[in-house]
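# step 3/5: fold
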Amino acid sequence: MTEERQPKFVPQEWQEFFNWEASMTEEERNTRRKDGRWPEGTPQAYIDLQTKLTAEDKLLMNIFEDYPDFQEIVNRPADYLAKQDEERQERQRVRMAKQVGEAVDTSLSYEEIKAKYNEKYPEGIKDEVKEVLGILTERENLIIHRYFGLFTGRPEELEVIAQSMNISPDEVEQSLTRALEKLRHPSQRHTA
């Protein structure tokens, strides 16, 4: 017997917002998306909700039905999302600087760091993954690729990997554990 999912409580102000949004014509929605013009009479609070919701807010709402406080969103400063983007870009700049051997506090701009990163890793994250996995033995590398589906996009179970490699599932699990430990702690690069 399957349990029927019960909708969570939607706060009144959110329900009113969703009803207003549903009442918009397709043309009004497209105009708003394309050039940010809002239908005449749109409450400022609704404009704030549309322009100040973060990706995280939307994710929580859509997946977990966890509605952020309506007033907290409305009270966010107008440049809230721009500041969030700046912080995200700075975190990315720091990560890329580390990857290309630059000091985290370098005076290089985001664009300069990104150019160096793209030079070192033309395929981006794929090249980073190859470099990181380079510390593994051939066997560990193969097991990691198959277990996480890096070749095919379809992860394989330990038993399937073991059978195809003609080894025991315990050996696969030990190799996987050793590989993950090396990846978490690159200083432990000993091979067994």
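# step 4/5: annotate
The chain has three domains: 12-74, 87-120, 126-184.
# step 5/5: archive (pending)
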